[in-house]
Amino acid sequence: MGVATLQLAVSYFGIVFAAGFVLGVIRTLWLVPELGERNAELIELPLMFGIYTAVAFYLVRRWKAQLTAKGTVIAGAAALAMLLAFEFSVVLCLRGLTFGEYLDSRDWLAGSAYFLSVWVFAAMPAFVYLKDSSNER
Prior knowledge:
elongated; mainly alpha
């Protein structure tokens, strides 16, 4: 993994996770009591989509000269691995849940939307790279 690929992966994960943490606090403290878990999560998802799209555009353009299409795929996969590892270790410990309890607690609709969104999160750096590359032709 090249330096730019590693920088992209770590930065992408870190910025998106930090934003998701802030939105998660807002969702948990203010939206869930008013709207319920499902609605709160479904409201948060498009905001997160916008965040990771903007972050991917910024970071890929920042290191574009040092990146390759393969590097952006690797960076997205590495960022996804970091996100899932952190969520399934630290976050579950903080919430006092096992992995099985976490899966059982997920609403089917919001959980499915979340599952889809993490795959889009992983693909976004490559998508941005390819989109920018096609615009340069």
